[in-house]
Every structure is written in C-alpha cells, then in structure tokens.
Amino acid sequence: MKKYEICQQISKSGLIGIIRERTKQAGAQRLDLLIEGGVQTIEVSLCTPDALQLITQYAASNGSLIVGAGTVLDAESARLAIIAGAQFIIAPNFNSEMARLCNRYAVPLFPGVQTVNEIICALEWGCDIVKLFPASSLGPGYIKAVRAPLPQVNCIPVGGVSIHNIQQWFEAGAFAVAMSSELTHIHGMGDENLEMVLEHIQNVVKAVKQAHDA
Q1: Strands 154-157 and 66-70: what pairing?
Q2: Residue 102: in which H helix or E strand, if any?
Q3: Cβ(106)–Cβ(3) below 8 Å
Q4: What angle is formed at CA 47 by the lines to CA 189 and CA 132, rounded to 5 degrees?
Q5: Which residues contact 145 (CB under 8 A, 6 or more apart)?
Q6: Cα–Cα distance measured from residue 60 to residue 72, given in angstroms and rounded to the nearest whole number
Q7: pLDDT bucket at 139, cuts 50 / 70 / 90
Q8: Quick one: CA dihedral 62, 177, 68, 9, positive or negative?
Q9: Which of 43, 91, 144, 193 is buried most, with the most CB atoms less than 10 Å from its CB?
Q10: Does residue 69 have a pLDDT over 70?
Q11: Structural contact between residues 172 and 157, judged by C-beta atoms closer than 8 angstroms
Q12: CB–CB of 166/213 below 8 Å?
C-alpha cells in the first residue's frame, strides 16, 4: 500500500488503536480484541516486548489491516520497524533523521508536536500528519486554533482522548484520533473481562464513526 493510501485509510477509519503492553502475549491478546472490535489501524508501541515480531505477524496476517510502529525514538529503530513490516511510524517527538529515513522509504511519519514551530518544522520535513502529544495538555480547541492560520495541518491527538470527548476532537478538526489504554482497557472494571473490553472497543469504534461522519 502506498503512502497516500495509508493516510487516506487512516482518515477514513478515523481511529488508531495503540498497543502498549508488558508482555508479547498480552499485546497479541489486545491486538486480537482490536481487530475483532472493528479497529482497522493499529500502532504497536516499541515499548511492548517483541513489538517487531508482533508487527511482522499481524501485518502479514490481514491484508486490510494497517499496522504501524509507535514510540519510535530514532532512525535506527524506525528502519527496523519498517523492515519488520510497519506501514507507518509514530514518534513522541520530531527527529529530522527519522523524517529523512521515512521519506527515503516512502513510509508516513507522524511525529509528536506541541508548538506551532514544531508543526511547521515537521511539515517542512515532509510530515503530512502530526501527532498532538500529550493532547490532554492542549485540548480540542488547540486544533481549531492552529488550523485557522494553517488549514493544511492534519492533526491526530494522542493522550487525553476517550469515548467521552471523541466528538469534541472531530468537531475541532482532528484528522483522526489515537487511543491506548482508554481503548484497550476498562479502568477499575478488571482487564481480564475480555467480553467487556471487546464491547467497549466496539462502542468506541461506533462513537468514532458517528463523530467522524457528522
């Protein structure tokens, strides 16, 4: 799948599910739940043990699924993730060497940004989409404010997105939203109740579709 096709599919689905677990087995379990729940784009954080193996396994097992790597801190890690099959790279910050490498292999890079200066820098290095992180410290209004003078900016908020504020983010102009524990776990309800977790994921997918298509 080409770079622009990946970005188009992310925009169409509106949701990136983030896997960040303490073991490979837990990561695979949550991946299966996300897929069953209807999530079409998944980021596997390199904080998860054997994350590259998970990327390879799931990227090859489902042709309609888009699998990327997250928490990528340097160009070396990005290259390993791309070799493993990652179709996009997400970083907590902007790194010019990583941007150069991703451009070389025509793989989308979504760097973490907070300021207008960081956003413009990312655009100049060929990043069509930026990750607002942590979004909880910025709020939905930040996207609307930034897109007034910079309407070409595509923003994905990460950290602070929940089923309760999805609509606010899309109303503000979010390109898509990304969720980790707020999607894959039910806090205070017991993570081992997989039926409840699956139902929660399905409810989030529905909420994203309603807000995204509104």
Answers
A1: unpaired
A2: helix 96-104
A3: yes
A4: 80
A5: none
A6: 21
A7: very high
A8: positive
A9: 43
A10: yes
A11: no
A12: no
Give residue for tokens 């090859």. 60
CA-based R_g, the chain, Å: 16
Catalytic positions are 43, 131
CB 20 within 8 A of CB 42: no
User: What does the block give as tokens for 37?
Assistant: 């729940």
Question: What is the model's pTM?
Answer: 0.96
What digits encode the pLDDT tens for the residues 160-210?
999 999 999 999 999 999 999 999 988 755 567 899 999 999 999 999 999
- pLDDT reported for residue 190: 56
Cα dihedral value 170, 34, 179, 95, nearest 10: -110
What token pair was written down for 171?
A: 């109303």
What angle (nearest 5°) sits at the alpha carbon of residue 102, between those of residues 62 and 48? 55
β-pair partners for 90: 110
Check residue 205 and give its pLDDT.
98
pLDDT score of 3 = 93
**Distance from the first to the final alpha carbon of the chain:** 28
Contact 92, 133 (CB under 8 A): yes
Instruction: Tokens for 4, please give them.
Output: 């622009």
